[in-house]
Specification:
The chain contains 4 helices and 11 strands. It is α+β, with helices and mostly antiparallel strands. The strands form 3 sheets. Strands 1-6-5-10-11 form a 5-stranded antiparallel sheet. Strands 2-3-9-7 form a 4-stranded antiparallel sheet. A two-stranded antiparallel ribbon has the order 4-8. The relative contact order is 0.19.
């Protein structure tokens, strides 16, 4: 009897083991293809400050805060920019920005930065854009939904190298750089794709912008070169902080985008 039971058990094992082997191969292939790490690559960070892949520190300890910015910004820096010609002096403008991830890379927001000296005099900046790097904050209707500081910058089109490996930005050609905000810089419960939707201005059926984005995107840095050029030009703007946001310029007469 015992021998017969052992034989039945052996037959069942011989049937089950091949399926386990197949399952093991499928799981192994899934890991190799990144299928089982997709959730991890899209997951936001915790509600505390943590180091980010590639550099920088998240603002997780500021989740839900209203009006938080790593660098102190003047009130008009957060207002929609005017459509008319800005005053002379250094300027930072957001170029294209988006959200995505690769087959094996964590999800991230990529933001293009456009810089100009705003005049004939060049703007001398450090290649790291100050000792504290770049700060990015994304705020929704209920407060901060993601952000980080100390983010590294990658220069796309430097206009020249000055003393001490600085970047020289002139008023004619300007310069462009890129900064990445890893999805881990988002607050708990936030999804990158949904946050990206909130950063886009609403449009009507004719693709006409009808208002401001539900979420604000602010990028800033502090570099002594900014304050030095402002002082030499007698600019009403003071200090070393330069910032830009995603708000849509308003028409001065109608007050609309």
């Amino acid at each position: 009897m015992l021998d017969r039971l052992r034989g039945v058990a052996l037959e069942k094992a011989q049937v089950v083991v091949p399926w386990l082997a197949v399952a093991a191969v499928v799981i192994a292939m899934g890991y190799q293809q990144g299928l089982f790490t997709l959730v991890g690559r899209l997951a936001p960070g915790p509600a505390k400050a943590v180091a980010l892949p590639g550099g920088g520190v998240s603002d997780g300890d500021r989740c839900g805060a209203r009006g938080y910015h790593r660098f102190p910004l003047p009130a008009d820096a957060l207002a929609p920019p005017p459509r008319d010609e800005p005053p002379a002096g250094p300027r930072l403008v957001l170029g294209a920005y988006g959200y995505g991830h690769g087959p094996r890379t964590p999800a991230r927001f990529t933001i293009d930065l456009l810089l100009t000296s705003g005049g004939k005099r060049p703007l001398e900046l450090s290649r790291t854009l100050g000792t504290d790097g770049v700060a990015v904050e994304i705020e929704g209707p209920d407060g901060l939904v993601g952000g980080a500081h100390g983010l590294p910058v990658r220069w796309l089109e430097p206009t020249g190298t000055g003393p001490g490996h600085s970047v020289r930005v002139d008023g004619r050609n300007g310069a462009s750089a890129e900064v990445e905000l890893p999805v881990r810089a988002l607050c708990p419960g936030q999804e990158g794709a949904e946050v990206m939707k909130g950063l886009q201005a609403p449009i009507d059926s004719h693709d006409t912008i009808t208002g401001q984005p539900p979420c604000t995107l602010t990028v800033s840095f502090s570099d002594p070169g900014v304050g030095k050029l402002r002082a030499s030009l007698g600019s009403p703007a003071r200090g070393d902080v330069l910032s830009a946001g995603n708000l849509v310029p308003l028409d001065q007469e109608t007050g609309r985008p």
